UniProtKB/TrEMBL annotation:
GO molecular function, one term: hydrolase activity
Span of domain Isochorismatase-like: 6-178
Keyword Hydrolase assigned: yes
One Pfam family of this chain: Isochorismatase
Organism field: Undibacterium hunanense
PANTHER family referenced in this protein's UniProt entry, alphabetically: ISOCHORISMATASE HYDROLASE, PEROXYUREIDOACRYLATE/UREIDOACRYLATE AMIDOHYDROLASE-RELATED
Alphabetical UniProt keywords: Hydrolase
Record protein name field: Cysteine hydrolase
Bilayer-crossing regions: none
Highest taxon in the source lineage: Bacteria
CDD domains: nicotinamidase_related
Keyword Hydrolase: yes
Length: 182
């Protein structure tokens, strides 16, 4: 694992992500891996940040007050853990997250959650650009099927791998749960 002051950033693990309306996804074991990491962070007394998407669209699964907006039962923050609410994909935009990390002298981040190609990628890019030593845990993130710009179907795994490829090296180090925990 990284140093004692490495923050685990858990992005958008809300009930809406586990509904059929969210779409077909990859990495069915992602939640289990996130839970393993969360337990390890808690046991070590390391900082944990939960990020929740607060949609601006009343029709969204993530509209405040909707069941889909709530954190998944297995990933509920403790009262001692920081919660960041965001309205866009990037957890650093208009949330105070950067300041919260700097005040605590946190320089190393481990990012997990959903979706790899949206909020995970956007947050990891900003983290890297802001000078944080950033890791993204590939098997603790997932994506959904989508169409590319030409209307060709892309599987969730293809979308996931493309996003991780975009991050590797320049913005973050991509690794898996086992490598991080050992």
């Amino acid at each position: 694992m990284k140093n004692q002051n490495t923050a685990l950033i858990i992005i958008d693990m809300q009930r809406g992500m586990a509904t059929p309306e969210a779409g077909r996804r990859n990495n069915p074991g992602a939640e289990e891996n996130i839970c393993q990491l969360l337990l390890a962070w808690r046991a070590a007394g390391r900082p944990v940040v939960f990020v929740r998407h607060m949609s601006r669209s009343p029709a969204s699964l993530f509209w405040p007050g909707q069941p889909g907006n709530e954190f998944q039962e297995s990933l509920l923050p403790l009262t001692s853990e920081h919660v960041v609410e965001k309205n866009v994909t990037d957890a650093f935009v208009n949330t105070g997250l950067e300041r919260w990390l700097h005040v605590r002298a946190i320089k190393d981040l481990v990012i997990v959650g959903v979706s790899t190609n949206n909020s995970v990628e956007a947050t990891a890019r900003s983290a890297g650009n802001l000078g944080f030593n950033t890791s993204v845990v590939a098997d603790a993130c997932f994506s959904f099927d989508r169409l590319d710009l030409h209307g060709k179907p892309q599987t969730a795994e293809e979308v996931h791998i493309n996003a991780l490829t975009n991050l590797q090296g320049e913005y973050a180090t991509v690794l898996d749960t086992a490598a991080l925990l050992h």
